[in-house]
Amino acid sequence: MMLHNFKKVILPIFAILFIASCDANKADDIVNAEEAKILKVHNDYVNGWLDMDEKKIMALLESNARIQPNTLKPIEGKPNIRQFWFPKDSSKTVINDYKTEIISLNIKDTLAISTHSSVLDWTYEKDTMSFGLLQKGINTTIYRKQKDKSWKIWRSMWTDIYAERH
Question: Quick one: 90 exposed, middle or buried, by C-beta within 10 A (0-12, 13-18, 19+)?
Answer without folding.
Answer: exposed
